[in-house]
């Protein structure tokens, strides 16, 4: 049997995890001296409250080798596909590798460095789960996923620069000017890292829709099976506006909405929204 796992940064909802029988390995989130498990006993809202009260950013950490090893059954014949956040962003990939080696089952464990984050990973995880249900072998699944990685289009538009500044990803001066000028950067993932691409201005309704409409050509040339709207806590009207626009393209079979987990939210802050898909 092929079992599919991902670390918690894939930001898939419980409904999707249950539907596709996907297991999750939670990362750690530390608020000062207190440690939590992403998606288990910490919410982004609690994280934002702590961060604002302490004017500090939470710390995040990969699951330990021992934590990862618990998902494997070395006495079974099961094969495993395990997805991790980009190896350039976290030690998750390496810890999964070491866990498999410690149990001497590395021949049955296929580790996918997603070179991505959030539902950029989730898109790949769901596809792997579909292939597993079709009866594909772990090697066949891993090969197809590797061929899809470069086709994932993951980007987000940021509401506030405060959290990027607190996390050391934006200078104080840039954050100050960006906030004063109401600038909202578009951040895209490529080559396993995050890169600023463009800046938008205006209120949240305007800049979010400007961001989405800039992708119209790419959206119309995306794989039709699904597109994600993933956000870290946005006004429902804005999310619905994005959904209606995607529906108007008459292209996607499924439009899925998910909330970013605490690890991703700790870096991007509230009000961040992304539209993520796989290029055809």
SSE layout:
Blueprint: E1 2-7, H1 14-20, E2 22-25, E3 28-31, E4 34-37, H2 44-54, E5 59-61, H3 65-69, E6 79-84, H4 92-102, E7 109-113, H5 119-133, H6 138-148, E8 152-153, E9 155-157, H7 162-166, H8 172-180, E10 183-190, E11 193-201, H9 204-213, H10 216-220, E12 227-231, H11 236-248, E13 255-259, H12 262-268, E14 273-278
Parallel strand pairs: 1-2, 1-6, 6-7, 12-13
Antiparallel strand pairs: 3-4, 3-5, 8-14, 9-10, 10-11, 12-14
Helix pairs in contact: 5-6, 9-11
GO molecular function, one term: lipid binding
Organism: Butyrivibrio fibrisolvens DSM 3071
Pfam families: DegV
What can you see in these coordinates?
With 280 residues, the protein is α/β, with parallel strands linked by helices. It folds into two domains: 2-27 and 62-150, 3-Layer(aba) Sandwich (Rossmann fold); 154-278, Hypothetical Protein Tm841, Chain: A,domain 3, CATH 3.30.1180. It has twelve helices and 14 strands. Helix 5 (119-133) packs antiparallel against helix 6 and helix 9 (204-213) runs parallel beside helix 11 (236-248). The relative contact order is 0.16. Residues 167-181 have low confidence and may be disordered.
What's this model, at a glance?
With about 280 residues, this protein is of the alpha/beta class. The chain contains 12 helices and 14 strands.
CATH class label of the largest domain: Alpha Beta
- What composes the largest sheet? 4 strands, parallel
Strand content: 25-35%
End-to-end separation in angstroms reads 29 Å
Overall pLDDT score: 91
From the coordinates shown, what is the CATH architecture of the largest domain? 2-Layer Sandwich
Model regions low in confidence, pLDDT < 50 over at least 5 residues: 167-181
**Spatial strand order of the main sheet:** 2-1-6-7
CATH topology of the largest domain: Hypothetical Protein Tm841, Chain: A,domain 3
What is the subunit arrangement here?
Answer: single chain
Number of separate strands: 14
> What structural class do helix, strand and pairing data support?
alpha/beta
Total helical segments: 12
